[in-house]
């Protein structure tokens, strides 16, 4: 998808005009930077550099692309297309801040030097590769900051992303921004990102009753024994939970179709059983059904992973669920059951996670999708690609809007750190000016 044609038409019309005027080999310097940090914040995380380097490393027009450009620009001379056929990025130099670093407005993320016609052709693809990457990486980092270091963050955004390419990019850069895993299998394969996922509400509601389970056998985790009727083991545990004096009154009859779904899933994945518990009623059905299956798995040497909440008052439900888990641990002596993981999802964003933190909750992991990958709070970062020098002569872009005035000349950038190792300020100097002295 990312080819030399992934650009705006005016890049080619300018390249032709440069070539026609004999200026196409003039040595130009462009800065790629942004004017304002996104989401009303004070920082940005730089993403997209690796993709830019890969793009220029493979920059070459194919004969099919040259043929297409001829059809789009029929009045251009044949020599121009011969020129396009000959060019690559071997004479282009890129200086950049390392990918994943915290960056600030006006400071160039990348400095690109080379023949003006060639570098001009890099503008749009570079902006396309950097703008969204940096925006979603920053969004992910902001979610990490508000969630805290101890919480697991799971990216669930593929189905809400702006198309397949957007979904793949989102998974990659959310991981760079501090997320722990993704639901996106393709991204896991391409980038080595841990993948997570269990089942949906559809899986739970597809079951009508416990009698649907025909393969009831489960071998213990160490292979030493086999339970021929795991379903009965689950049912017995549910009865014990229902008859427990300490849990009395917490719930009544649970959904047997939900219990069937949980049991079936546990039989398929006994090592990684995590149940979505809000299809019917979280506290009256979902949580006790999960506990019955989890306790049966424990008898067979397996440890259930936990539950996911996808609706309702997440703070309240997580707290009540945690209480129930602790009560189960105390009642039946299952060490560690009280710490069983609780995952929350349901259109989460920075604000809702912050509100949960202030309210108090027992959530261990957050699954975040729509607001994360679409960058709902801000649609674009707004990086720009400006000419700052040509043939060693500084160039400036003026504007009645002072924020759009470019900073001319080839620059060097420095970040100064205090004695305790924290960054204090970024400084830009001209290429030939002395750097800051300690």
TrEMBL record:
Its EC number is 6.3.4.21. GO terms for molecular function: metal ion binding; nicotinate phosphoribosyltransferase activity; transferase activity. One of its GO terms (biological process) is NAD+ biosynthetic process via the salvage pathway. The keyword Transferase applies. One of its GO terms (cellular component) is cytosol. Pathway: Cofactor biosynthesis; NAD(+) biosynthesis; nicotinate D-ribonucleotide from nicotinate: step 1/1. InterPro entries: Aldolase_TIM, N/Namide_PRibTrfase, NAPRTase_N, Nic_PRibTrfase-Fam, Nic_PRibTrfase_pncB, Nicotinate_pribotase-like_C. Residues 5-131 form the Nicotinate phosphoribosyltransferase N-terminal domain. It holds the Pfam family NAPRTase. Transiently phosphorylated on a His residue during the reaction cycle. Phosphorylation strongly increases the affinity for substrates and increases the rate of nicotinate D-ribonucleotide production. Dephosphorylation regenerates the low-affinity form of the enzyme, leading to product release. Residues 176-404 form the Nicotinate/nicotinamide phosphoribosyltransferase domain. It catalyses: 5-phospho-alpha-D-ribose 1-diphosphate + nicotinate + ATP + H2O = nicotinate beta-D-ribonucleotide + ADP + phosphate + diphosphate. Its cofactor is Mg(2+); Mn(2+). Keywords: Ligase, Magnesium, Manganese, Metal-binding, Phosphoprotein, Pyridine nucleotide biosynthesis, Transferase. Belongs to the NAPRTase family. NCBIfam families: NAPRTase_put (TIGR01513). Catalyzes the first step in the biosynthesis of NAD from nicotinic acid, the ATP-dependent synthesis of beta-nicotinate D-ribonucleotide from nicotinate and 5-phospho-D-ribose 1-phosphate. Helps prevent cellular oxidative stress via its role in NAD biosynthesis. PANTHER family: NICOTINATE PHOSPHORIBOSYLTRANSFERASE (PTHR11098:SF1). This is Nicotinate phosphoribosyltransferase.
């Amino acid at each position: 998808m990312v080819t030399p044609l992934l650009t705006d038409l005016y890049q080619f019309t300018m390249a032709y005009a440069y070539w026609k005027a004999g200026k196409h080999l003039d040595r130009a310097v462009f800065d790629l930077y942004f004017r304002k940090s996104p989401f009303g914040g004070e920082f940005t995380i730089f993403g997209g550099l690796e993709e830019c380097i890969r793009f220029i490393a493979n920059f070459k027009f194919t004969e099919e692309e040259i043929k297409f450009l001829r059809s789009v620009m029929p009045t251009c001379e044949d020599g121009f297309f011969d020129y396009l056929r000959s060019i690559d990025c071997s004479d282009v130099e890129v200086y950049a801040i390392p990918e994943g670093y915290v960056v600030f407005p006006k400071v160039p993320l990348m400095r690109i030097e080379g023949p003006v016609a060639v570098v001009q052709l890099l503008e749009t693809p570079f902006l396309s590769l950097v703008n969204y990457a940096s925006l979603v990486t920053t969004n992910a980092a902001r979610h990490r900051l508000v969630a805290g270091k101890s919480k697991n963050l799971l990216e669930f955004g593929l189905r809400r992303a702006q198309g397949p390419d957007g979904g793949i990019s989102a998974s990659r850069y959310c991981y760079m921004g501090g997320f722990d895993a993704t639901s996106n299998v393709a991204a896991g394969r391409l980038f080595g990102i841990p993948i997570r996922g269990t089942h949906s509400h559809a899986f739970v509601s597809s079951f009508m009753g416990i009698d649907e389970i025909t393969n009831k056998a489960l071998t213990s985790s160490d292979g030493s024994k086999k339970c021929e009727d795991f379903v009965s083991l689950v049912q017995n545990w549910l009865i014990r939970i229902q008859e427990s004096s300490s849990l009395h009154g917490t719930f009544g009859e649970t959904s047997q179709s939900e219990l069937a779904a949980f049991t079936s899933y546990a039989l398929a994945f006994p090592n990684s059983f995590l149940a979505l518990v809000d299809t019917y009623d979280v506290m009256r059905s979902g949580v006790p059904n999960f506990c019955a299956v989890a306790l049966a798995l424990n008898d067979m040497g397996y440890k259930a992973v936990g539950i996911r909440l996808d609706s309702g008052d997440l703070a309240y439900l997580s707290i009540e669920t945690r209480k129930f888990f602790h009560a189960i641990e105390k009642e039946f002596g299952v060490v560690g059951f009280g710490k069983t993981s609780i995952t929350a999802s349901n259109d989460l964003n920075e604000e809702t996670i912050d509100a949960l933190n202030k309210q108090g909750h027992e959530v261990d992991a957050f699954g975040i999708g729509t607001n994360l990958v679409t960058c709902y709070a801000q649609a674009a970062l707004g990086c720009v690609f400006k000419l700052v020098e040509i043939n060693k002569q500084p160039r400036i872009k003026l504007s009645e809007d002072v924020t759009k005035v470019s900073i001319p000349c080839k620059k060097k950038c420095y970040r100064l750190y205090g004695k305790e190792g924290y960054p204090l300020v970024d400084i830009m100097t001209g290429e030939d000016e002395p750097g800051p002295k300690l």
